[in-house]
Write a structure and sequence with these properties.
Blueprint (H helix, E strand, L loop, with lengths): L1 H4 L5 H31 L3 H29 L1 H18 L6 H29 L2 H31 L3 H23 L4 E3 L15 H31 L5 H17 L10 H25 L5 H31 L6 H28 L5 H24 L10 E4 L9
Antiparallel strand pairs: 1-2
Helix pairs in contact: 2-6, 2-7, 3-4, 3-5, 3-12, 4-5, 4-7, 5-12, 6-7, 6-9, 6-11, 8-10, 8-11, 8-12, 8-13, 9-11, 10-11, 10-13, 12-13
């Protein structure tokens, strides 16, 4: 029973504890970030939306360069450095008084997030043995979701105070959580890497055409997140008779399933073939979800609620299976000394899809009267058809290793005589 709720002892449990800790602070902040900038700072909705768009674009542009930086200087150092930048950014939030300063702090936050994500992934891949690596990442994701849920509840309490001090709590709590997390990460076992100078530009990873094709498939799969967060709620309130409070229950259903099933979903993510199968299941699950949501526009009453719930379950399956498969691909396919930049390439692809997805998918599903769901289903069906040939291409393509060699967590060393 313990093995179902706790990762293997040692470093995996430290990683899980860190994820839960930092997620509480992020949950507090994300619950009221828009409210903070609107009421505390006084920005308009257009300014807030534009600022977050600029921040998102900056994160895309920096994903590969900062992944390359994590490869060169080590995942743990990059993780800590990114966290420190994040602490500074959130401490500056209360000083924001104009649009330009808003963009500056969001830019710092984007740098922090990209560097932290790259560092965490590089460190985890290097420090955790391959046989439990994906399973550990699944535990990290599950506890991250639990931390977000707790933080969201605390954030709702802070917003309910309806005061400037209450809004200030949102950002300062996250700054404190990130600072504690940075200290936690700094005390994790060190991983020594002996990497020679790498003068290859970070975007050179795009010349690995099989991996680039693989990131394209996962870019399509990442659109399922857009479907869940944006398209399905709009479809539910404009094209079905489901009462609006049902949306909260659907989000809660997704969270519960993600926490309970993320680890079991990694069972077959132990080889290229197994991960390709998971990816195909993920794509086909969204194909089925598109049909289900289309049917939901023609049902009534409790049947509509049941149909929407089934669609959310199918989209959650896509989320769980695709994330498990992607963890395997981004840690096992790249050369060990270039995992950061490969991860950056993967995140750039999915980030572009998430930028285009809300507009394109909302138009297809909502503004066509429903027939656009068939187009979305066809897109995911193409991903299901492509994944095995693409993975086979990845598997038969050699990748040159640089001079890096990685060892496990370092043994404690005695203090020097100096």
């Amino acid at each position: 029973m313990i093995q179902r709720v706790l990762p293997p002892p040692g470093l995996p449990r430290q990683l899980v504890a860190q994820s839960a800790l930092v997620a509480v602070g992020w949950g507090i902040y994300l619950t009221g970030s828009v409210v903070f900038f609107s009421l505390y700072v006084g920005l308009t909705p257009v300014q807030i939306g534009l600022g977050f768009s600029i921040s998102g674009l900056l994160g895309l542009v920096l994903a590969m360069p900062l992944g390359h930086l994590a490869d060169r200087f080590g995942g743990q150092r990059a993780w800590v450095a990114g966290s420190i930048v994040g602490v500074v950014a959130f401490l500056l939030y209360p000083l924001v008084g104009a649009f330009w300063s808003f963009v500056v702090v969001l830019g710092m936050q984007a740098v922090s997030q990209a560097l932290t994500d790259a560092g965490r992934s590089v460190y985890t891949a290097a420090a955790v043995p391959a046989e439990i690596r994906v399973r550990t990442m699944a535990f990290v994701r599950a506890y991250l979701n639990m931390g977000f849920t707790v933080g969201a509840g605390l954030g709702a309490v802070a917003i309910a105070l309806d005061s400037r001090p209450g809004l200030l709590i949102l950002v300062l709590a996250n700054a404190g959580g990130i600072l504690v997390s940075a200290c936690f990460v700094a005390r994790m076992p060190a991983v020594h890497t002996e990497a020679g100078p790498d003068r290859r530009p970070p975007w050179g990873v795009l010349r690995d055409h099989p991996f680039t094709a693989l990131t394209g498939v996962f870019a399509i799969l990442s659109c399922s997140e857009v479907l869940f967060s944006t398209v399905v709620p709009l479809w539910a309130i404009t094209s079905t008779d489901a009462p609006r409070p049902v949306l909260g229950a659907l989000f809660a259903l997704n969270t519960v399933l993600a926490v309970l099933l993320q680890v079991p979903a990694t069972r077959h993510a132990v080889s290229l073939t197994g991960s390709a199968n998971l990816t195909r299941w993920a794509a086909l699950s969204t194909v089925a979800a598109c049909v289900v949501f289309l049917v939901g526009g023609r049902t009534q009453g409790w049947l509509t609620i049941a149909v929407l719930a089934l669609g959310v379950v199918l989209l959650t399956g896509t989320e769980l299976w695709s994330s498990a498969a992607e963890w395997y691909f981004v840690t096992e396919v790249p050369p060990p000394d270039r995992r950061g930049v490969y991860l950056g390439a993967a995140r750039t692809g999915s980030g572009v899809a998430r930028m285009i997805g809300p507009v394109a998918l909302t138009f297809l599903a909502v503004h066509t009267g429903g027939w656009g769901w068939w187009v979305i289903a066809a897109l995911f069906a193409v991903a299901a058809l492509l994944i095995h040939p693409v993975v086979a291409w990845v598997g038969r393509t050699p990748r040159a290793l640089a001079s890096a060699s990685t060892t496990g967590p370092a043994e404690p060393r005695a203090p020097s005589a100096h």
